[in-house]
Amino acid sequence: MRDYWVDRRQITGFIGSICIIFGTFLPIYTINLIIIDQVPVPLIDLPLIGRPIAIILIAMGILSLTAIAFEEYTLLYLSGLVCLVTVLTTFILVEAGLVMLSDAMPKVFAVINYLFSYDFGWIFLMAGCGLLLVTPILHD
User: Where are the domains of the chain?
Assistant: First the structure.
């Protein structure tokens, strides 16, 4: 019998949902401009694909929070899987764009590759996906 009002699954799912929601606003890439400084690029500011992907992730985060509030943990499989596929697809699309750029303009790509680096937003997005997928498996 439980004598506390929040169980381990609720805490884990809540943290995963928050990581997904806030991860869309955290920088996933950093552009190192020599003269100006570093410019962080959050997921929501990616050209063309950023806003739709951010809307999907935020909607899945809110769905997850709702499922956790009503203790419907099996819905977290759906939201976690959708978030994981969305995050991995975004990563692959951005990397594929960089590879296509390197094939088309190798000298320009060398400069872009020097200026372009990953940031900590990916960690929050992947951790959130993992926590959402692990939450239904946990026992009280």
Answer: 8-137
